[in-house]
Description:
Elements: E1 2-3, E2 9-11, H1 13-23, E3 33-40, E4 46-53, E5 59-64, E6 67-72, H2 76-79, E7 82-88, E8 93-98, E9 104-105, E10 111-113
Parallel strand pairs: 1-5, 2-7, 3-6
Antiparallel strand pairs: 3-4, 4-10, 5-6, 7-8, 9-10
Amino acid sequence: MDTVVNIPISLTPSAVTEIHKLMTAEGFDTTQRLRIGVKGGGCSGMSYILGFDHTKENDNEFEAGGIPCVMNKSHELYLEGIQIDWLNGLENRGFVFSNPNASSTCGCGTSFAV
């Protein structure tokens, strides 16, 4: 696996805290990494992928905020510079993506266009 010298994404302290909670839950597979990626779909054309997965052949591995991460090399074009935050409010709860590469985003914030 190649190692990325630069870290293509950033995690806010609240995102790191929430991800760390998930990774320390009973039964978590500690061989998995946080996968950040994209897939076709959503109301704006592309949707974000955020979940836990094992490293695959075309992945770059890196660490963000102390969290071990993987990203398919081809997704970096769409995600370079993205910031992932965690909101825990009454009206908004969940991960929020701030992507400098998106030309437009949908109202829910989970899909974008480039």
